[in-house]
């Protein structure tokens, strides 16, 4: 078992060496994680739509679909 005071240093080393990892039994409610996932995807979709619309406008392209429908 890892002592709590050593945990931040170990997490830092794990992220440097592995890049990411999965935590289980972390206590964060699933509905909160689902909400965060939904909001993140919604924000990214809106951002990409705006970027695409700006690109279409800058290139003078008309009649091009500018709505992103599937982000998964």
Automatic annotation (TrEMBL):
What's in the keyword line of the UniProt record?
A: Iron, Metal-binding
Alphabetical list of SUPFAM superfamilies matching this protein = Clavaminate synthase-like (SSF51197)
Domain (Non-haem dioxygenase N-terminal): residue spans on this chain: 15-64
> What terms describe the molecular function in GO for this protein?
metal ion binding
Q: Hey, what's the signal peptide range on this chain?
A: none
| InterPro entries from the UniProt entry | DIOX_N, IPNS-like_sf
Please give the superkingdom of this protein's source. Answer: Eukaryota
| A Pfam cross-reference name | DIOX_N
Q: Does the keyword Protein biosynthesis apply?
A: no
Task: Return the protein name.
Answer: Non-haem dioxygenase N-terminal domain-containing protein
Originating species: Clitoria ternatea (Butterfly pea)
